[in-house]
């Protein structure tokens, strides 16, 4: 019994031990399962935390990227605004500068016109130096005014500065190819310089542009007169007189042309009309008196020739032709001493006056002055057609 009891106790003990082992194994298994579960939970949490961190990092990156984009957009916006403001400032400055330029240009035009008007006033008073100064101011303020250049050219003509008159006329024509006055002034300057072909060419253009200018016809007629084309000189003088019946210079010029054609009566008529229209103007009247004196000489009216010569000399004491004509009239009247005196004066005024040498030589020969032959030889040297 005891043995059986011991066996039973041993079995019971073994069963207890087995139960404990089972429980221990079960506990170990449960522990492992719990540990695995805890590890799984830890890993899951770690993964979740990592994902959360990733998402947070990504969100931060996106935030930072957006912030950077916003900052860049703001920078570009600010830069665009600065550029807009700078452009607006530049445009405002340019507009102000243009406004100032236009205001100055407008004022310059006003000042230029005032200077031009002042120059014209001085010109009409015969004060050509002041006229030129004011025209120059007008040109400085408005260098594109062809009328100012043409007007200054005429003032230079009146001063005897023909080259400067040509230069100003050139500029006026460059600015306005239809400036008839500039062509006329340049033509007159060439006329004074003895370039008759160029004078005629320029005055032709002036007449084409303005066919109603009597002065242009008169001056072209004078150029033809100087070239010896008396018929054209008369035709142009006729037109000048038709356009201006009081054009005394045209009458004078036509009288000279008729005188050269030996039409003494018509020369006397035209010279008389020139004198009637302007009897005290030495610019034309002295020549008209001298020309009429020569016509009277040719007609044998020596006393009238002397009277006209006297008047020509009164108006212009430097008119060598008047002295020569008077000397010839005295020669024809037999007053050799006065003939010698007048022709001597003519020679002193113009040492190339061949007729004065000829007539003085003839007067000297009549009083047996041995220097007569020298005068006659000099006359023939100057003009082989005289004293034959």
Key features of this structure:
Serine Threonine Protein Phosphatase 5, Tetratricopeptide repeat, 388 residues, 16 helices
Strand content: under 5%
Helix fraction, binned, reads over 70%
CATH architecture designation of the domain at 104-190: Alpha Horseshoe
Q: Please outline the major beta sheet.
A: none
Task: Determine the CATH superfamily of the domain at 104-190.
Answer: Tetratricopeptide repeat domain
Shape: rod-shaped
Mean of residue pLDDT values: 92
Query: What's the CATH topology name of the domain at 104-190?
Result: Serine Threonine Protein Phosphatase 5, Tetratricopeptide repeat
- What is the number of E strands? 0
Q: Terminal Cα separation, in Å?
A: 210 Å
What is the N-to-C order of secondary-structure elements (H for helix, E for strand)?
HHHHHHHHHHHHHHHH
Specify the CATH class of the domain at 104-190.
Answer: Mainly Alpha
Report the C-alpha radius of gyration, rounded: 59 Å
Commentary on this structure:
The protein is rod-shaped, with a radius of gyration of 59 Å. It has helices at 2-124, 128-141, 146-159, 162-175, 180-192, 196-209, 214-227, 230-243, 248-260, 264-277, 285-298, 302-315, 320-332, 336-349, 354-366, 372-382. By secondary structure, it is an all-alpha fold. Helices cover 84% and strands 0% of the residues. It has 16 helices and no strands. The model has no long low-confidence stretch (mean pLDDT 92). α1 runs antiparallel to α2 (128-141), α11 runs parallel beside α13 and α12 (302-315) packs antiparallel against α13. Among the domains are: 104-190, Serine Threonine Protein Phosphatase 5, Tetratricopeptide repeat (Alpha Horseshoe), CATH 1.25.40.10; 327-388, Tetratricopeptide repeat domain (Serine Threonine Protein Phosphatase 5, Tetratricopeptide repeat, Alpha Horseshoe), CATH 1.25.40.10.
